[in-house]
Specification:
- This protein is of the alpha/beta class and 817 residues long.
- It has 5 domains: 92 residues, MurE/MurF, N-terminal domain (Udp-n-acetylmuramoylalanyl-d-glutamate--2,6- Diaminopimelate Ligase, Chain: A, domain 1), CATH 3.40.1390; 206 residues, UDP-N-acetylmuramoyl-L-alanine:D-glutamate ligase; 126 residues, Alpha-Beta Complex (Protein-Tyrosine Phosphatase, Chain A), CATH 3.90.190.20; 222 residues, Alpha-Beta Barrel (TIM Barrel); 125 residues, Beta Barrel (Lyase, Ornithine Decarboxylase, Chain A, domain 1), CATH 2.40.37.10.
- Helix content is 30%, strand content 23%.
- The protein contains 27 helices and 38 strands.
- Strands 15, 16, 17, 18, 19, 20, 21, 30, 33, 34, 35, 36, 37 and 38 form a 14-stranded mixed β-sheet that branches. It has a 9-stranded mixed β-sheet with strand order 7-8-6-9-10-11-12-13-14, sandwiched between helices.
- A hairpin with a 2-residue loop joins strand 12 and strand 13.
- The longest helix is centred in the last third of the chain and has 22 residues.
- The mean pLDDT is 92.
- Bound molecules: pyridoxal-5'-phosphate (PLP).
Length: 817
């Protein structure tokens, strides 16, 4: 077993302190993922958005006793952490990579490295499934393919593994050089050359050349030689290759692929023989991914019948883990991605991040981990369950049932139908239920049993994108500047409790809502962050105190009403809104004398912050006015602070202000629309990621004759014969009626289809002439390819309105990739 002393030999670096032999078992880079303090080494990494060194005190208090920190940390580490072993290195991320490369070098087994623009994760998952009969495979969990993800993936290598499959993704030159020595692939797969992540590269050729660096030492590289740039680059570097192609001579020549029902028949020529096989998919991307796998299996000399047998059992890879509301106030984490230990750990981490939602239940099938003896495997599962504080386990499957003695408060069923037969909804109330099952167990049936009825329209919220946007704004903040996030109006339509929970996890400093009820709902969902309420009415002051919410106070009358409700010996925090030109709410200088008088009479009231709001931060024409507002706010806030004689948080910038006036962050900023993916000044839109996708389904397809009309008031007139699709969204769902009659478009099967006729209450019709559409297809109302900014412009409004209009009857589904 690796010890801390040996770690020093590998990483070089300076030993600040070596306390006692520390085993190096778990590599920790995210303080929130701590589960086993003994044996964990925390690598404090200076990230783009966050600094791991901030979490040393917390981790030390939680029992971590081994740290790798960066030089330049000036604090007296020995005094602060007397019992910890500490190593100081120039760059902690590099050190982590170095350690992983060292670990990799201990194993002399074949390792497949996968890179390319798309399909990396799917090819990895499929190959691992296809080879599981012959090999003990270790692979990247999910799409852990980054500078940080790759070392953590490779760290999983254990002596009993016989094959490694790891993916590598890069977004700029220079990155692959770091990943190559960590993976040290002996075999390569280059999936394809697309346009994803082109931003970081000067040209596609450069991107290809950079990615090829992963394969500098491989014995064989698999790729499709129809990608001309790739073909050229591989030949130039004379890497030994196994090629497949639909157009030219190659090791594997694809004569034809034809769709037959739900399958694709592939006719190919290999070693002079023409053969045929069926792939259980029909879409282009899956066919390409499957052909890579076929090439690999042919090269391994598997008999044709065996290859067909294994291909038949391939399933689509569920790329994401979904969170949704379920019966009786339960919350479901649906993860049917795969069911090995690494995947289980990730899902349990996510569940553990929702402690406030109530009891945690895990519904788990047999774990399909090929690398461990059964007993050892379920001991590990039991340990994971325990460190993640899961209160109840429901095991489904013959194997897991054999090990029921390892679990407490657990029930076991031999199969999914058995469980469903015994299923009683009343047994589940206000809990977070993680459903994690291997494919063959068909846990989607369990998910269905737990789910509430879904009306065909959903708003999907991409939590990864939300975090990306949060971090983007955070990267603009000076150290020490606090971040308040506006989650008013149901978090701009996205779902308050879920978003607030994520913000709490990602350590926002403050939340703000418009009304007391919104704040109460957050508290009832376990949100403990300070919450400011912007428009509390006097009749809600009692509730404010009950739920520890902090009111915005904007007028003398309101302040009078508030202080008349105070109870002695209690402390109250308030936020003073100052009017500097918006002329909506707020105190003006003329109010100050009375304001100070009231505050002096009520010392139990503490002014937590003073703030004002910019009226035109989104538009450059108002820059002078914004500057005036900032100047007058600074003066007014200083006057207040002087009279109060204690420090008050001052803030004025909204999302647009953060981008436009970074020098006026003061003590805190208030992030709103930017979090949800809309950059209000328009100048940095590219840096944000769209967060929400509103989708619905096609209910019916119709053929309309020339001259006939569509919808109410006969507004949609068919100028020629048309095909229309009726989709299940109307103005009652928040789809604006101004989109009627060709103003709006929706995306169906990748094509833009204009509205025809007026938007109805629950439905509307679109012109799908020439587009392949059938009932049940998905129609996207807005999303990454049809942006809120564009839609808002079409009907003369702003993205804020479109987002917050999405009716609460539309179900919100949250997912992470
Ligand atoms: C809504 C709101 C914000 C956030 O505005 P965005 O333009 O969405 O960033 C900030 N401050 C106050 C007072 C608000 O009401």
């Amino acid at each position: 077993m690796l010890g801390f002393q040996q770690l020093q030999n590998i990483l070089k670096g300076k030993v600040v302190q070596l306390v006692q032999p520390q085993p190096v078992l778990h590599l920790l880079t995210d303080s929130r993922k701590l589960s086993q303090p003994a044996g964990s080494v925390f690598f404090a990494i200076h990230g783009k958005y966050n600094d791991g060194h901030k979490y040393l005190p917390q981790l030390y208090a939680q029992g971590v006793r081994a740290f790798v920190v960066e030089q330049g940390e000036q604090v007296a580490l020995q005094q602060l952490y007397p019992e910890a072993s500490i190593l100081q290195v120039p760059d902690s991320l590099k050190a982590l990579q170095q350690l992983a490369a060292w670990h990799r070098a201990q194993f002399n087994i074949p390792v497949i490295g996968i890179t390319g623009s798309n399909g990396k994760t799917i090819v990895k998952e499929w190959l691992s499934a296809l080879l599981s009969a012959d090999e003990l495979v270790v692979k990247s969990p999910r799409s852990y393919n980054s500078q940080l993800g790759v070392p953590l993936s490779v760290w999983q290598l254990q002596p009993n593994h016989t094959l490694g499959i790891f993916e590598a993704g890069i977004s700029q030159p220079g990155e692959m050089e770091q990943l190559q020595p960590i993976i040290q692939p002996t075999i390569g797969i280059f999936t394809n050359v697309g346009s994803a992540h082109d931003e970081g590269f000067a040209s596609t050729a450069q991107k290809v050349a950079e990615k090829l660096k992963l394969f500098s030492g491989v014995e064989l590289l698999f790729y499709c030689s129809d990608y001309a740039l790739l073909q050229e680059a591989v030949q130039q570097q004379s890497i030994k290759a196994f090629t497949w192609s639909r157009k030219q001579t190659a090791d594997l020549f694809i004569n034809a692929t034809t769709t037959a029902g739900h399958k694709t028949i592939v006719v190919y020529t290999y070693q002079g023989q023409k053969q045929r096989l069926a792939i259980p998919f029909t879409d282009e991307a899956s066919i390409e991914n499957a052909l890579h796998c076929l090439a690999f299996l042919l090269w391994r000399c598997l008999p044709l019948s065996e290859i067909q047998d294994r291909l038949d059992r391939l399933h689509p890879v569920a790329m994401r883990l979904e969170m949704k509301e379920a019966i009786n106030g339960c919350y479901l984490i649906d993860d049917t991605y795969n069911n090995d230990l690494a995947g289980l750990t990730i899902a349990l981490d996510l569940q553990a991040s929702q402690p406030q939602r109530g009891q945690h239940t895990l519904i788990l099938s047999d774990v399909l981990e090929t690398g461990l003896a059964e007993e050892e495997l379920y001991l590990k599962v039991a340990e994971l369950v325990q460190v993640h504080k899961v209160q109840r386990v429901i095991g489904i499957g013959r194997t897991i049932s054999k090990y029921k003695h390892l679990f407490t408060n657990a029930a076991f069923y031999t199969s999914t139908p058995d469980f469903l037969k015994a299923f009683n909804p009343a047994d589940y109330r206000n809990e977070v239920i993680l459903v994690k099952g291997a494919r063959v167990f068909e846990f989607e049936k369990i998910v269905q049993a737990f789910q509430q009825k879904v009306h065909g329209t959903v708003l999907e919220v991409n939590l990864d994108s939300l975090v990306h946007n949060l971090n983007y704004y955070r990267s603009k903040l000076a150290p020490g500047t606090k971040l308040m996030v506006m989650v008013k109006a149901f978090a701009y339509g996205s779902g308050s409790a879920e978003i607030a929970n994520l913000l709490q996890f990602h350590r926002a400093d403050y939340l703000a809502v418009a009304y007391v009820d919104e704040g109460v709902a957050l508290r009832e969902n376990g949100i403990t962050l300070p919450i400011m309420v912007m428009n509390p009415s006097p009749d809600s002051f009692v509730k404010l105190r009950q739920y520890n919410l902090e009111p915005e106070i904007y007028s003398l009358e309101q302040l009078q009403a508030f202080v008349s409700m105070l109870e002695p010996h209690m402390k109250y925090k308030i936020h003073l809104k100052l009017d500097t030109g918006m002329h909506r709410l707020g105190f003006v200088v003329e109010d100050f004398e009375l304001l100070f008088e009231i505050l002096e009479q009520h010392p139990q009231v503490q002014v937590a912050s003073t703030f004002s709001h910019l009226a035109g931060a989104d538009e450059a024409v108002h820059n002078d006015f914004s500057q005036l507002q900032i100047a007058s706010f600074t003066r007014m806030a200083a006057a207040i602070e002087e009279r109060l004689t204690y420090k008050v948080i001052k803030h004025i910038l909204n999302s647009a202000g953060i981008v436009r006036f970074p020098e006026h962050q003061l003590d805190m900023v208030r992030l709103g629309i930017g979090l949800y993916g809309v950059e209000a000044t328009g100048s940095e839109q590219e840096a944000l990621r769209p967060v929400s996708t509103l989708k619905t389904t096609v209910s019916q397809v119709k053929h309309i004759k020339q001259g006939e009309t569509v919808g109410y008031s006969r507004k949609g007139i068919a100028s020629t014969d048309r095909t229309t699709a009726t989709i299940a969204i109307g103005y009652a769902d928040g789809y604006d009626r101004r989109f009627s009659n060709g103003v709006g478009q929706v995306l169906i099967n990748g094509q833009r289809c204009p509205l025809i006729g007026n938007v109805c209450m629950d439905m509307c019709m679109v012109d799908v002439t020439g587009v392949e559409v059938k009932a049940g297809d998905t129609a996207i109302i807005f999303g990454p390819q049809l942006t809120l900014v564009e839609l808002a412009k079409n009907i003369g409004t702003i993205p804020y309105e479109l987002l917050t209009n999405v009716s609460t009857r539309v179900k919100r589904v949250f997912y992470a990739e």
